[in-house]
């Protein structure tokens, strides 16, 4: 009885606002559903075929496989590194922990605007341009050029700044849970810094690492906020560095209200995330530890 | 024209089709009074709800409330939506919780019309239809019927610094060749000749380049309109400007803000009429305007757009809603003039009101207003759906930034646009 009193409202919310919409999207993906969520014309796998035949959608999926292959390991290594440094430091540990974590509290939209309009603004007084100006370089319009693709530098640096702290905290919690006895025993056996990391810290962090990797992969494919806010201009988004969700927003789910194709695209994206996550889980042998 | 609302979060997007479900579930605050037969309204007057997106200019919200309150034949509640207006409105039209009267950028979308979500407004105009800005009415017309009443006209035009042109001994450009030559002659170490947006005009100038060469997105029979080598040459002009490094790029605020021009970083900028008060303040009379020039076989042009007042087919009292829309946006010319000129800087959609607008009687603003009447082009035709526009935008970026072959890119757009237009017309 009390179980349902406490769990009920949450479970109900979950069903009504999460599960029903998800199932409804799957249902919509089999229909021609322009401007309606109660469509009547069944098109089978037609929407899926259209989306997969759309070169722009395929290219955005491809771009984001590459993006994930880059950003996942990079964020992983950097946040683990930050966690190890903060865990090791004896002075002002709380200070450093807070400093690294602080950006997590910043809105993606705000950070994107700061990156776009201040740090990487194309005028000579932008922070990045002022820095290269000291070396006598001409100002670069960072977000306008496609050759070389400087926009990746802007996006990746914004994303790392926003996300590192969060994953660092996860690693830090994992590191602090490791029993110090293990390190003492290893020290007695003569293990040095690198060996301790390789044979004690990393194996003990397997569960945390698995969770972090999974979150990073999902995050990489669901990228929207900082891309949209940095690269979109007045109702358009360039055909490069375009996340699948941004593409769906422009062609189907924004003013277009083409729920059939939009849902099909979203289901395809979900399937890609699920496959990548499964492969990663298998590779990490999910749940072997703990 | 509206600024894009960039507050859309990933969570909103993931709600997908569910967003409209959620709206039904929690859509109690619709701004519409209780329209059940027993209650609502005062006395026997019907209750109507009218929706607006959030206008940035101070005083607009009070003004529209004042207009609505003065309407004698219905009690009208104004809902002012600071959020993602286009999305919310489009989704709410699927439900019973939507508006009776609402504004929508360039009138209702073709899918709204085909889906029977909005009603035909043609009979409201009578003879006055001649008085409305022609290109705007055409943009809101489909199948011989007018689907919205243009509220107020916004436009974009080429603005130049008189002093910089004089110093360089250049006349304001009349032809495309003039413009290319002027952009180059005006470029110095410190100043770029022309600013067309941070993407070099890829997003903004595509339509204007087609019109310059005498083409359009679609022909009069709704066939694909620019599969022609001369259209390719027109689009390639933007690439030429890009590679010759006469375009200003990388501005903190894009073309819709006059900062690049007023700070002296460029000599010419394509921008909106709404920036004129800022330019005027910063430069005094040191600026002039010309329409986007023409190439051989084409015409000068300025893009115009207007929010159109539409009536939802799901309104509990369609006739009352139409009567209100007619009263405010056709009959109440004083309110229309007030709305166009007292807050933001716009052009009244009824041409006969333009001479009465103090803001538009002289100088560049007057030139711009007459250009909107003479050379106005709706930004995109009604059948040019977001899907077509995305394909076109992709092609433009590839042509301008990457130097892709314009004819190949036009073919790629055609491949998307032809079936899409057929789909819509079906």
Automatic annotation (TrEMBL), chain B:
<dbReference type="GO" id="GO:1901982">
    <property type="term" value="F:maltose binding"/>
</dbReference>
<dbReference type="Pfam" id="PF01547">
    <property type="entry name" value="SBP_bac_1"/>
</dbReference>
<dbReference type="GO" id="GO:0042956">
    <property type="term" value="P:maltodextrin transmembrane transport"/>
</dbReference>
<feature type="compositionally biased region" description="Low complexity">
    <location>
        <begin position="27"/>
        <end position="37"/>
    </location>
</feature>
<dbReference type="GO" id="GO:0015768">
    <property type="term" value="P:maltose transport"/>
</dbReference>
<dbReference type="GO" id="GO:0055052">
    <property type="term" value="C:ATP-binding cassette (ABC) transporter complex, substrate-binding subunit-containing"/>
</dbReference>
<protein>
    <submittedName>
        <fullName>Sugar ABC transporter substrate-binding protein</fullName>
    </submittedName>
</protein>
<keyword id="KW-0813">Transport</keyword>
<comment type="similarity">
    <text>Belongs to the bacterial solute-binding protein 1 family.</text>
</comment>
<feature type="region of interest" description="Disordered">
    <location>
        <begin position="27"/>
        <end position="48"/>
    </location>
</feature>
<dbReference type="InterPro" id="IPR006059">
    <property type="entry name" value="SBP"/>
</dbReference>
<keyword id="KW-0732">Signal</keyword>
């Amino acid at each position: 009885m009390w179980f349902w009193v406490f769990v009920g409202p949450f479970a109900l919310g979950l069903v009504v606002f999460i599960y029903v919409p998800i199932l409804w999207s799957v249902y919509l993906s089999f229909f021609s559903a322009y401007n309606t969520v109660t469509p009547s014309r069944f098109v089978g796998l037609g929407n899926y075929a259209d989306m997969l035949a759309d070169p722009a959608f395929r290219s955005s999926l491809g771009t984001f496989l590459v993006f994930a292959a880059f950003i996942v390991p990079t964020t992983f290594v950097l946040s683990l590194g930050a966690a190890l440094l903060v865990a090791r430091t004896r002075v002002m540990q709380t200070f450093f922990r807070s400093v690294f974590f602080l950006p997590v509290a910043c809105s993606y939209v705000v950070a994107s605007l700061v990156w776009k309009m201040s740090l990487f603004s194309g005028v000579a007084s932008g922070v990045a341009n002022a820095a290269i100006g000291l070396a006598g370089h001409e100002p670069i319009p960072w977000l306008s050029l496609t050759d070389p693709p400087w926009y990746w530098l802007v996006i990746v640096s914004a994303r790392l700044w926003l996300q590192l702290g969060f994953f660092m905290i996860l690693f830090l919690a994992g590191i602090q849970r490791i029993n110090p006895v293990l390190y003492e025993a290893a020290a007695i056996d003569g293990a040095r810094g690198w060996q301790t990391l390789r044979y004690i810290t990393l194996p003990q962090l397997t569960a945390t690492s698995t969770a972090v990797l999974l979150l990073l992969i999902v995050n990489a494919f669901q990228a929207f906020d900082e891309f949209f806010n940095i690269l979109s201009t007045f109702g358009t988004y360039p055909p490069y560095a375009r996340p699948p969700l941004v593409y769906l927003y422009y062609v189907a789910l924004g003013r277009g209200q083409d729920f059939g194709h939009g849902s099909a695209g979203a289901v395809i994206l979900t399937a890609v995330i699920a496959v990548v996550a499964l492969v990663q889980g298998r590779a990490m042998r999910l749940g072997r530890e703990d | 024209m509206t600024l894009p609302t960039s507050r859309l979060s990933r969570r909103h997007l993931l709600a997908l089709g569910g967003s409209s479900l959620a709206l039904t579930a929690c859509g109690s605050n619709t701004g519409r009074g209780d329209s059940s037969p027993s209650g609502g309204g005062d006395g026997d007057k019907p209750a109507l709800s009218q929706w607006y997106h959030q206008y940035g200019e101070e005083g607009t919200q009070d003004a529209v409330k004042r207009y609505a309150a003065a309407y004698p034949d219905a009690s009208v509640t104004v809902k002012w939506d600071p959020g993602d207006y286009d999305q919310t409105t489009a989704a709410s039209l699927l439900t019973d919780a939507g508006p009776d009267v609402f504004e929508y950028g360039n009138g209702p979308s073709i899918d709204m019309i085909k889906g029977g979500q909005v009603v035909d407004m043609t009979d409201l105009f009578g003879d006055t239809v001649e008085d409305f800005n022609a290109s705007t009415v055409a943009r809101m017309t489909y199948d011989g019927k007018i689907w919205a009443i243009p509220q107020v006209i916004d436009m974009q035009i080429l603005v130049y610094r008189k002093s910089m042109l004089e110093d360089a001994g250049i006349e304001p450009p009349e032809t495309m060749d003039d413009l290319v030559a002027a952009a180059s002659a005006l470029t110095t170490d410190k100043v770029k000749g022309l600013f067309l947006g941070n993407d070099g005009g890829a997003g903004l100038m595509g339509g204007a380049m087609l019109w310059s060469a005498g083409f359009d997105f679609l022909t009069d029979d709704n066939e694909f309109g620019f599969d022609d080598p001369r259209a390719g040459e027109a689009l390639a002009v933007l690439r030429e400007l890009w590679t010759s490094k006469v375009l200003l790029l990388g501005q903190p605020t894009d073309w819709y803000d006059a900062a690049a021009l007023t700070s002296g970083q460029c000599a010419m900028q394509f921008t909106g009429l709404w920036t004129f008060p800022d330019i005027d303040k910063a430069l005094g009379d040191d600026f002039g305007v010309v329409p986007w020039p023409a190439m051989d076989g084409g015409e000068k042009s300025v893009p115009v757009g207007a929010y159109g007042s539409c009536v939802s087919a799901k309104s509990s009292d369609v006739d009352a809603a139409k009567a209100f829309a007619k009263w405010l946006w056709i009959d109440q010319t004083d309110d229309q003039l007030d709305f166009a000129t007292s807050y933001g800087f716009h052009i009244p959609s009824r041409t006969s009101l333009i001479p009465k607008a103090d803001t538009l009687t002289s100088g560049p603003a007057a030139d711009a207003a007459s250009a909107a009447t003479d050379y106005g082009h709706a930004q995109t035709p009604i059948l040019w759906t977001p899907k077509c526009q995305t394909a076109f935008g992709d092609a433009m970026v590839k042509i301008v930034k990457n130097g892709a072959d314009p004819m190949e890119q036009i073919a790629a757009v055609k491949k998307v646009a032809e079936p899409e237009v057929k789909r819509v017309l079906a």
